[in-house]
Amino acid sequence: MKKATQFSTHRLKKLSFLPALFDSFAIYKRTLPYYQPFFPKLLLCALLIILSVGLNILRPWPVKWLIDDVLLKTINHLPHGYRHNLMTTAFIGCAALFLIYLIHGQLSLLINSLLYRIGLSALLKLRTDTFSFLQYLPLRFHESNKSGDIVYRIAYDSQSILTMLIRGFSTIFSSSLLLIGTLLVMLKLNLYLATTALGIAPLLWAIISANTAKIKQKSTRVQEQESNLLAETSERISSMRLIQAFSKEEESIASFEKAAWNSLNANYEYLQTSNFSSLLITMTTAFGTALILFIGTNEVWKGRLSIGQLWIFLSYLASLYQPMEQLSYTSWALESATSSMKRIFELFEIPNEVSEPSNGIVLKAPQGKIEFRNVSFEYHPGKPVLKNISFTVNPGERVAIVGPTGSGKTTILSLLCRFYDPIEGAITIDGIDLRNMTKKSLRQHISLVLQDTILFNTSVEENIKFGKEGTSHDQIIEAAKEASVDSFITQLPKGYDTIVGEKGALLSGGQRQRIGLARAFLRNSPILLLDEPTSSLDLKTELELMSSLLHLMKNKTTLFVTHRLHIIHSWERILVIVDGKICEEGSGKELLDKKGLFYQLWKAGNFFSPSTIL
Hints:
There is one protein chain. The chain is of the alpha/beta class. It has helices at about 10-15, 25-30, 40-60, 60-75, 80-135, 140-145, 145-155, 160-190, 190-200, 200-240, 240-245, 250-300, 305-350, 410-415, 440-445, 460-465, 475-480, 485-490, 510-525, 540-555, 590-595, 595-605; strands at about 370-380, 385-395, 400, 425-430, 430-435, 445-450, 525-530, 555-560, 575-580, 580-585. The chain has a six-stranded mixed sheet with strand order 6-7-8-3-9-10, sandwiched between helices. Strands 2-1-4-5 form a four-stranded antiparallel sheet, with helices on one face. The model is unreliable at about 1-20 and about 605-614 (pLDDT under 50).
């Protein structure tokens, strides 16, 4: 049994089953399958890049011809007839230069278009896979980690898969080809100058190697601080009602500023390290260029090199150093990208403690008999919430569960939905252990109404329809009528098409609860779980809602968790949970007559006399 602590944020950041998983090679290997479907297109891109590099190597030659075969000869005062031929040569050279740039530009546009389409498709697949995986992780994970951090990983860290293609495959492949091609031409032009130019390379690679680890460390810190800032912002914005109610605006601003400053400092340190490294590389390449220019000028004076050859050599020198610079920047960009991809792949390493059984039983048309057999459960090791709980609920029976706060009432419902698995004992429906059923088929036969109904920022109809897909508009209206919410909905500006706002903010608590009930009516599952559905309502709204709830409970196996004892006093069966154990059981009248804990809770609540309640 995996314990709750493994889902803490600290463990999420430190999670490491295999040390090699987090080195760059392993990250590239895990990223590769996302590009596998696009290998034919990538091969086409590779061929286009080869052609583009070839054109890039040709670019200095028209200028070289113009210098040596036109300008220098014109300066030497050739006869008029020769000048006409030279102008024809100059026109051909200029046209060739224009065509080379034109074709190279078109190729670059096509290559970038193809690569970005491939990269964005891979990004879509990665984001979808990550989001889909998170959907099936147990609630323990989602309750133990900041939603803002998870959102940052999906929305921003995932973009690194695009960086790996554009800055990785494209830049490394093209720069390597250009580097090799340029070097071969330079060696053929002038061996002395070429070897001198290559003498700068070891210094460049030394600078790159010395700064790679620092860049990766700073980049990782930036991602963590940006993630923290997003999580802080999300939490503060979503808690605005509470912040304003307690006049905590200044404290909220201070907390946000702290997170923002941490992000700023992390970004500043990263940029400082990156810019300083870039400066060293630029100075090194500038020194190499100046050195070659000095030596090349001397070679021209000695007649061993023409001015055009010096020009073409200096052009190739830029083409030699530029790929080196690009490769250095690419290595840093890839270090940052692998850090981000590591944060994505960490999510896939989270074990699912509530896993699907192999060859799981598909629950079909259950009678609804529920049985807890010696069930124990704990959220944190050594702190049990339920202790050897046993009880049976027969099909169609309704059972209330009451007790002090923190006694384990809601946990019983969570275990029945299989949001968690017990650490001891078993829970069955119609004699089948929940762990042997598919989770989907189990939950399809359960309707859950929570204390705070969760609504999405969409229409009323879509929120009701969330309870059961594939339903018609008439079925939705019928469910709303059964929940006594149709009359309210029809008075809204756009009726069932009215947008309810984020988390249903534009509706009252009672209205949200009734929409939640409409979902349950629409779902019409044989098992009904009610978790404090009336606790936040006033007495009048509560009594109105209970009328709908009693209608909903007909012929359904019902578990009703509540603190409002007056609404379940008339029930034939009530379980009183204290400190994770069932300490009392019986009808409301029996429990009051016993004058035990239920009676004490009744008195403490100062409820109405038994004769006035439901």
